[in-house]
Amino acid sequence: MKSLVWSLFFTLAVAPAVFAAKFPQNAWTDASKQTIPGNAVPNKFIVEVADVSDIPGKRELGAPDSHKRLYHALRKRDVGFKVDKEFNHQGIFVGASVTLDNANDRKQITQIPGVKAVRPVILVPAPNPVNIHVVSGVDDPALPPDSESTHVLTGVDKLHAQGILGQGVKIGILDTGIDFTHPVLGGGIGPGFKIIGGFDFVGDDFTGANTPVPDPSPLDQCNGHGTHVAGIIGANPDNPFNISGVAFHASLTSYRIFGCTGSTTDDIIVEALLRGVSEGQDILTMSLGGSDGWTESTASVVSSRISDTGKIVTIAAGNDGSKGAFYTSSPGNAISSISVASLDNTVIELQNATVHGVVHDPITYFATFPFPVNDTLPIFVTSTDPAVVDDACDPLPDSTPDLSGFITIVRRGTCTFVQKLTNVAAKNGTVSLIYDNGSGFSAIDVGNFTSTLIQADDGVFLVNAFASGETVSLSFPQSGAAFGFPDLSGGLISSFSSFGPTNDMFFKPAVAAPGGNILSTLPVPLGSFGIESGTSMATPFIAGVSALLFGVKGHSPSVGTTARTLFETTAQKISSSHTDGDPLQSVSVQGGGLVDAFTAITTDIVVTPGEFLLNDTAHFKPLQTFTVKNNGKTAKSFKLSHSPAGTALSLQSGTSFPADGPVPLSTKFATVKFSETSFTVHPGQTQKLTAHFTAPSGADASILPIFSGFIDIDSTDGLDSFHVSYVGLAASLKDAQVVDNSDVFFGVNLPALGASDGSFISGPANFTFVGSDFPTLVMRLDFGTPKLRFDLVDPNIKIKTTLNQRSEQTHVLEKSVFTFPNAAQAGTFSQVKILGPLFEFDFLPRNSDVNDGSGFNSFGLTNTFANGTTISNGSFRFLLRALKVTGDPTKEEDFESWLSDVVGVQAPSP
Ligand SMILES: *[C@@H]1O[C@H](CO)[C@@H](O)[C@H](O)[C@H]1NC(C)=O
Ligand SMILES: *[C@@H]1O[C@H](CO)[C@@H](O)[C@H](O)[C@H]1NC(C)=O
Ligand SMILES: *[C@@H]1O[C@H](CO)[C@@H](O)[C@H](O)[C@H]1NC(C)=O
Ligand SMILES: *[C@@H]1O[C@H](CO)[C@@H](O)[C@H](O)[C@H]1NC(C)=O
Ligand SMILES: *[C@@H]1O[C@H](CO)[C@@H](O)[C@H](O)[C@H]1NC(C)=O
Ligand SMILES: *[C@@H]1O[C@H](CO)[C@@H](O)[C@H](O)[C@H]1NC(C)=O
Ligand SMILES: *[C@@H]1O[C@H](CO)[C@@H](O)[C@H](O)[C@H]1NC(C)=O
Ligand SMILES: *[C@@H]1O[C@H](CO)[C@@H](O)[C@H](O)[C@H]1NC(C)=O
């Protein structure tokens, strides 16, 4: 039976609560879990060059444009390359993506005059919805009655009531394509339709690892994500589900950059963004990204520049909330763009099952649409003990009846839901309910089984009734049992929404929008309508609000460049919980708060800026200025006050590991003094103000406390309230440990060298570098690093490393305890004698504590230098160095370092 409920991302709900469960010791040999650091694609780079007009003496080479000059210069230096794409948008991005024969020519390319940057091409994962639920079709019997609650929460309903619908505004959607045949999306593509155009940059079969096959039609009938996104912006209201897009009179263009499955690469994102700019989109929206922490990826840089020209670019903050702070996604980290967080809806539409045989209230089950079960079926419980911890984790006993005619009741805990359901299915059980063990009532990952969660009390009741011999049956009404369940986390930031700020203290995310349990369109062959959750759903909401803004204020660049500030200053502050006295949620996960579209678009008061970036203690910016402008017709009086938000304790105490989300909050707040606390602004006038911040005292700097909050600007008539959000770190970023040197994850101290049989190497070892006889560097980053270097050095190098000096090394260190010639002198980094570089990466994200491909980095080593030259046979060591955040790359003492044991290179002679 095809299940109606499944999810792609809620495996989180079954993760054991224990932090830092060790990975399998040979986890790094599992190719599917191996990651090239930062998701870089081997040998592919995006080279940015200066506009031709910027290049002095540009005629000398006789090359008419920047691209030809670049290729000429590459050939002159004997760099083997193939051009994959050319980018030519003067003022935003000029350059090319190239595949190099030898990745290590990258260094040379950076030295070519006129080359501004060489960045790796990054693999960007497919948009990852938190859960998906497909409606069977427009005749689905039970529809959620309040599909517009998201509009009510944000004031979009009031704008719609005034006929503000985004007419005349153009939005480009970079996603999996759109099913433009969908009647609710206009049923076609081209001039005169809602979807006015588009392009498919990749083709159905593109996975991110193969060659894209572009075609003119962005039709998507195989994935569906982009169709869901498009409906959130543009669904026409005349549909049986009564949903409508935020800006359903806007014109949409579909840039398809994902195939049916898999990832895309950021050179394709850049190409699509630049096409969107040339095609005159007012807004570009991207419900995609990969966890990063830095602002420097090419797609981030290009998005930011496009935002600077006055277009609005909205980008998902990411669904990595469980992985802790400093982990927002790129390109969402684009400095000038709008990174969007997700808020849980206040009411979730769930279904009730009817209880027969005993008197009991209907049982609410976590499904938006009724289970496809017509019969009233008796229950069977896999354990009569309602406190059993590992119910149905093992195959069910032989005494178990054929379960095909039963609703099986199982308790949550220990193993995955799918494992329990597989055991039930082995006894022919097809419909099951899993009762909660206190972990919370939410969507769960049940694979393709017909199953979902019920609450603990209901489960205990059913088990006890069954145990006492009652005949209890359940039925699943196919209509009329939808029920507005008050979501306990409703109105709060979704647990999956990623935490910022960026590694260098930029304010991400910017603003939140509803992203949980959103009903929207799906491709017709995939069911036409469905529910999804994720920052992917919140992002098009802000794109829609942006269209309403442009629709009202006109399309001028000044409207675009000030949009983020407007949304941030008018947003609604979000609490960290529904418990009285708990602090406001950290700005590092809510941004300025939940967007208030009505206030943003109708207010006459303009507060600038929207963000105070206080930075860390070493670069603290305590004095901040802001202005309040009155564009209205009457004088307004305001008072200033401070609403601190919870201080996010980003590391686990006593470790260098990030605290998992929800990041714990403390009430050690910053304090603020204002230049004045009340003032009046007359029509047309601007009041200038200052705020002087003091970082929280008594916060434990070793756990990197992120303090944040809001400067409230409330009108004394009680009608208007605005705020400027601030974020700072009560610690110095340079003190944050970057490289994991513990044995927590693999049972051996990291970094470490592994052999291809999955064991770690201790002590000296020789390698032939033939077949699988090579070492692999296994390492983890606890914090992002701006620069990671791996060099080959003399086995007797005189250096004092900072990480994990093993006893075998002591003799080396003793006879030559390292001192830099003059540690205070600049350029100490270059004084460390190396035999040659093996690799170097810039702006690497940190790792997570989950073994899902983000948990560690591994690099298989070859007997070649970075430039491809073979390393001659002999004895060496490897030297790993990672620059600390805000560190100076010329100073050795700003790096963490690790020296390997002696490695013998013993390649057979050719
Ligand atoms: C949709 O709206 C119509 C008209 O207001 C109403 O009769 C109908 O019950 C609504 N349908 C749902 C599913 O809410
Ligand atoms: C659903 O069940 C809950 C809990 O028993 C009950 O409060 C609610 O009234 C029911 N709603 C419907 C529509 O059956
Ligand atoms: C339930 O009944 C409906 C209407 O008779 C039918 O279309 C559907 O196939 C039945 N579903 C199952 C799972 O038997
Ligand atoms: C499951 O159903 C099949 C086919 O009806 C039957 O042969 C088998 O015995 C059943 N399995 C169990 C465990 O009852
Ligand atoms: C459910 O998933 C399992 C494992 O992925 C697969 O073997 C099985 O065929 C699927 N069943 C259905 C009905 O889709
Ligand atoms: C914080 O300070 C560092 C060091 O000067 C700088 O690189 C970074 O850009 C600053 N962050 C912000 C948000 O200004
Ligand atoms: C590596 O090879 C060298 C040269 O043959 C030898 O002296 C040394 O003992 C070898 N080391 C190990 C760990 O096998
Ligand atoms: C490659 O790098 C090594 C180590 O830095 C150096 O000795 C060698 O000369 C370089 N080869 C070329 C062709 O540049």
Give a description of the structure.
By secondary structure, the chain is of the alpha+beta class. The protein folds into five domains: 39-124, Alpha-Beta Plaits; 142-346 and 487-601, Rossmann fold, CATH 3.40.50.200; 347-486, Glucose Oxidase, domain 1 (3-Layer(bba) Sandwich); 603-737, Immunoglobulin-like (Sandwich); 752-905, no CATH class. It has 14 helices and 45 strands. Strands 16, 17, 18, 19, 20, 21, 22 and 23 form an eight-stranded mixed sheet that branches. Strands 8-9-7-11-13-15-24 form a seven-stranded parallel sheet, sandwiched between helices. It is globular. The chain starts with a strand and ends in a 5-residue tail after the last strand. Residues 1-21, 58-63, 135-146 and 807-825 have low confidence and may be disordered. The structure holds 2-acetamido-2-deoxy-beta-D-glucopyranose (8 copies). One 2-acetamido-2-deoxy-beta-D-glucopyranose binds next to β38. One 2-acetamido-2-deoxy-beta-D-glucopyranose (NAG) binds at residues 372, 374.
CATH topology of the largest domain: the name is Rossmann fold
Proportion in helices: 10-25%
Question: Sheet bearing the most strands, described?
Answer: 8 strands, mixed
What average pLDDT do the residues reach?
Answer: 88
Report the strand count: 45
Q: Runs with pLDDT <50, length 5+?
A: 1-21, 58-63, 135-146, 807-825
The number of helical segments is: 14
Proportion of strand residues:
25-35%
Briefly note the structural class of the backbone.
alpha+beta
